[in-house]
């Protein structure tokens, strides 16, 4: 349903959590992000506090948080049938203004393990 706009939305979310300079989202984008967020929270059981802490650079070593992030990427069609994230596609969608900061954040998470909850 949201697959056309979702990759861009996810990149904007990554940018929003990636630094102090926060982009402003339209109400439509906020609604899409909230819907996906709510669904992924239910699926993974992640704590809202752990998600909020990511905005401040605090990434708890928690399988539920990793699975939440994976769920977001899966909803954006950035994950293939084998569960492999297409990081190059994700990075290609990042606005130039945020590219350096956000790509460092994305690639630092590249090899953190897999989320088996969502691959079942």
TrEMBL record:
One of its GO terms (molecular function) is odorant binding. It is found in: Secreted. CDD domains: PBP_GOBP. Coiled coil: none annotated. It holds the Pfam family PBP_GOBP. The keyword Chaperone does not apply. Keywords: Secreted, Signal. Residues 1-18 form the signal peptide. InterPro entries: PBP/GOBP, PBP_GOBP_sf. PANTHER family: GEO07291P1-RELATED (PTHR11857:SF43), ODORANT BINDING PROTEIN-RELATED (PTHR11857). This is OBP18. It comes from Mythimna loreyi.
